[in-house]
């Protein structure tokens, strides 16, 4: 299963924010949209970073409530790992597990085309394994 196939089923909607948005506003967006991360785009529309719930919890734990007024650029992850549409679920599962990350922006030719979460990958992997098991059951039953 390829990332492009997951995006066809899931859609390519990516919620984004700007580096100057406050951490409080980003936290509110995460809650309202029921997502775990937003991609941060610079003025030219290029990926500047990614900010997750985990980033916000860390900055509030370190700086207290006053840190919520800071720009998201102060806590976002700048060294973003990307996925490409032609990558497999297994390669992304390994990368995300090794790096302990939950979201990967998907880019094609330097253009943001989607966002993949670890939950998306697990869901598709389970479907893949279930389909394989059904195929094996049918094969065995047919003799």
Strand tally:
5
Main beta sheet strand tally, sense and closure: 3 strands, mixed
- SSE ordering: HEHEEHHEEH
How do the strands line up in the largest sheet? 1-2-3
**Please, what is the CATH homologous superfamily?**
CBS-domain
Distance between the termini: 28 Å
- Amount of helix: 40-55%
Poorly predicted parts? none
How many helices does DSSP assign? Answer: 5
Shape-level CATH architecture: Roll
Q: Give the percentage of residues in beta strands.
A: 15-25%
Number of structural units classed as domains: 1
Mean pLDDT: 93
Radius of gyration: 18 Å
Q: Using the coordinates above, name the CATH class.
A: Alpha Beta
Task: Note down, in words, how this protein is organized.
- This protein has 143 residues and is of the alpha+beta class.
- The chain has a single domain (3-142), classed as CBS-domain.
- The chain has five helices and five strands, in the order H-E-H-E-E-H-H-E-E-H.
- It has helices at residues 3-10, 23-33, 53-63, 89-99, 118-142, and strands spanning 16-17, 37-41, 47-52, 103-108, 111-117.
- The strands form two sheets. A three-stranded mixed sheet has the order 1-2-3. A two-stranded antiparallel sheet has the order 4-5.
- Helix 4 packs across helix 5 (118-142).
- The longest helix is centred in the last third of the chain and has 25 residues, at 118-142.
- The radius of gyration is 18 Å and the shape is elongated.
- The mean pLDDT is 93.
Describe the secondary-structure layout.
Layout: H1 3-10, E1 16-17, H2 23-33, E2 37-41, E3 47-52, H3 53-63, H4 89-99, E4 103-108, E5 111-117, H5 118-142
Parallel strand pairs: 1-2
Antiparallel strand pairs: 2-3, 4-5
